[in-house]
Amino acid sequence: MFEQIPSDALQTLRANLARGTLSAPLTVPALLANGLGVLAKHQPALENLDAKALMLLCDAVLKEREKQTTDIELVWTGPEGRTAAARSTFVVFRDLLASAQKSVWMAGYAIDHGAELFAPLHKAMTQRNVRATFLLNLEAKVHRSEAVHEKAVELINRFRSENWPFAGPFPRFFYDPRSLQARTFASMHAKTLVVDEKHTLIGSANFTSRGQSRNIEAGALIHDEGFAKNLVTQFQSLIDGGVICPYQ
Q1: ∠72-211-207 over CA atoms, to 5°?
Q2: How far apart are CA 174 and CA 160, in angstroms?
Q3: pLDDT digits (tens, 9 = 90+) for 81-108
C-alpha cells in the first residue's frame, strides 16, 4: 500500500503528527483539511494506528526509499557526436512496450505511424493481458459544450483507424475536454510512457515519425518505481476527478 503514497505526503503526514496539528486515529475529513487527500483512500488501513506508530511507519518507508538508487538513461533523437552515450527514442519506446507485463500508460500530444509504433504493445496485450491506457490530445474547437464528447468520439475513432490497425484488445482512451472547447487554450501536451509502474520515458519527443527518428529531441528513461507510481497516480487522479474523460 505505502509504495503508492508519494514521499511528500508521508513527510507532510509525519510533520503534522509531530506538531499535533493532526491526531490519531486518522479520519478522512482531517486528512483533507491538512492537504492530505491523497491518503484518503488509505484511511481504513491507517485508522487503527496511533500517532507514534504512524510516525515510525512514515520514517521506515522514507528511510527505505532513500536507500533506493534511481537509474536514469539519456534518450535521444537525431544526429549524434563522436562521444554520444544516448539510446534511440524509437528503440527505447518499442523496447518498453515489448517488455510490458502488466500495464502501460501513455500520454501524447501528437502520434502517428501507430501500426509500427504500437505493434509490440498489441502483442503484449494479446499474450499477457497487459492493460493499456492512452491519454490523447484532440485537435478541434467545438462551440457547444454538449457537442464536446461527440466530437471526441469522432476523433478517437479516427485515431483508432489510423494508429491502431489491430483487432482487439484495445487500449482505454481518455481525453481532456478543454482541448476541444472554443476559447479554451489547453492541450494534452505531455509526452510520457509508464510501463508496469516501474519504468518511465519522458521528454520532448512526440510519438511521431519526426519525433522518434528525425528531429533533435532529448528525454530520460527513468527506472524508479516511486516516480512511475507518482506519475500514474497523478493521471489517475485527473480521471477520478472528471478532469480527463473516457472515450466511452
Answers
A1: 80
A2: 13
A3: 766 678 999 999 999 999 999 999 999 9
- The Cα–Cα gap between 96 and 203 comes to 15
- 179, with CB counted inside 10 A (0-12, 13-18, 19+), is buried
d(CA 23, CA 19): 9
The rounded distance, in Å, linking the Cα atoms of 92 and 199 is 11
CA–CA separation, 189 and 137 (whole Å)? 7
CB atoms under 10 Å from CB of 175, counted, come to 25
Of 20, 16, 40, nearest to 29 by C-alpha is: 40
**How far is the C-alpha of 211 from the C-alpha of 217, rounded, in Å?**
7
Averaged pLDDT of the chain: 91
Please tell me the total number of residues recorded for the chain in this structure: 248
User: Which pLDDT belongs to residue 143?
Assistant: 78
d(CA 28, CA 60): 23
- Furthest C-alpha separation in the chain: 60
**Beta strand pairing call for 245-246 and 217-223:** unpaired
- Cα–Cα distance measured from residue 191 to residue 107, given in angstroms and rounded to the nearest whole number: 6
DSSP 217-241: EEEEEEE-HHHHHHHHHHHHHHHHT
245 three-class SS: strand
Integer Cα distance of 44 and 23 in angstroms = 15
